Amino acid sequence: MKIDIIGAGSLGLLLAGKLILAGAEVRLWCRSDEQAGELSRQGITISYEDGSLPLHLTGSSFRAGNIDKFAETVIRVPGDWTAIMLKQNAFHDILPKILAPLRESRLYAVCFQNGNGHLELLQELLPQASVWAAVTTEAAKRKSLTEIIHAGTGETFIGKRRNINPIKGGLEEEAAANSLTKALVAAGFRALMSKEVDTMIYRKLLFNAVINPLTAIWRIQNGELTASGERIQLMKELYREAASVYDACGIAYDADAWEGILEVCRATSGNTSSMLADVLASRATEIRWINGSIVAMADRAGIAAPLHRWICRLVEGMNVKER
């Protein structure tokens, strides 16, 4: 299987490395010539926090290039699947220009983003494409342009969102998605196809909207959120407000979702959330597509979500670009 991976961050490198090791033909598309060059020279290294021996894939075992060359390459030599691993801000800022030459192409694309809005944008950019969602609990941290730490294994679910229009030929789409899922399993991931991906997306959004911004604001790891009653109280207030928005929008969520959030904090106690990592690196965060999604849903339902709105403004104001 020939797989294009757009975005060489922590999860992008993890996905690429394991797929290459399993025999897939991978083209990895980076946002900078510097990273593409380093990957071509040094390859990909995946190390583990538990002390397991690291994996190393040589630069000759895959192709790395600048994302600007993606469209012309795919037009000339199509791949089987495109996995989009960019964070939400890059997804919205970069992809419209990058994908413009492919507007009439019938790509198979799977998106690994947190939050909401990206799948609808991709279907708008590529109306003939077969667009799939991936919801994953895999955890990885990037150490350098070429090395990542696989910080935690999880599950990856592949499915269609109900509001994304499928192309004609549903059986063909299902077969292609099944082949992708099998390739992920062969690469060592716990991957499954699911018809409940909408529920999973909203579940992950709810969890991220409570955990990620508070770790970024307080600059703490996930497990430290439960270290005091004051922190737990603010978490609970964010959760209750988000749950009320879900209720108003008719979005189902688990009756034990609050306990699930606390369990995630315990299970990932040593993890640095992606939002905290962005803040520490002075990068733009995904707050607009996480808590901002909660605010947007509240606005559409005609109810207030003042705490999530305030959290958005607070996080957005943490990194200010020089003018």
The CATH superfamily name of the largest domain is: NAD(P)-binding Rossmann-like Domain
Query: Any idea what the CATH architecture of the largest domain is?
Result: 3-Layer(aba) Sandwich
Oligomer: single chain
Number of beta-strand segments? 12
* Portion in helices: 40-55%
Order of secondary-structure elements: EHEHEEEHEHEHEEEEHEHHHHHH
Give your account of this protein's structure.
Helices cover about 45% and strands about 20% of the residues. It is of the alpha/beta class. It folds into two domains: about 1-195, NAD(P)-binding Rossmann-like Domain (Rossmann fold); about 200-320, N-(1-d-carboxylethyl)-l-norvaline Dehydrogenase, domain 2 (Orthogonal Bundle). The strands form two sheets. It has an eight-stranded mixed sheet, with helices on both faces. A four-stranded mixed sheet has the order 4-3-10-9, with helices on one face. The radius of gyration is 19 Å and the shape is globular.
Structure in a nutshell:
With 323 residues, the chain is α/β, with parallel strands linked by helices. It has helices at 10-21, 33-42, 70-76, 88-99, 118-125, 170-186, 197-218, 229-249, 257-267, 274-280, 291-301, 306-316; strands spanning 2-6, 25-30, 44-48, 55-57, 63-66, 81-84, 108-111, 130-136, 139-142, 147-152, 155-159, 190-193.
